[in-house]
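INTERNAL AUDIT FORM
Audit reference: QA-55
Scope: verify that the stored structure record matches its stored sequence.
Auditor: D.O.
Record contents follow.
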Amino acid sequence: MISTDGLTSADATIRRPPAITPSAAAIARAATTTILSWGDRRRQRHALAELDDHLLRDIGLTRHQARTEALKPFWCG
């Protein structure tokens, strides 16, 4: 047990650190990063859908796998 001899009740109280809240700049950076990655993902899936069978074979995908990936919404990782 911890001794509190000589301490007032205010001194003996365990103080919690202040809550950390993200700054507006950090939130804006995170939102920008997310939106840019969504755009990249949309472009990549569109390009994947346009590949011919020879190129799909080169990257190890079937037409069905490419179509399945290309049909996913941009927000799905």
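Auditor finding: record pair retrieved intact. The CA atoms of residues 27 and 33 lie 10 Å apart.
Action required: none
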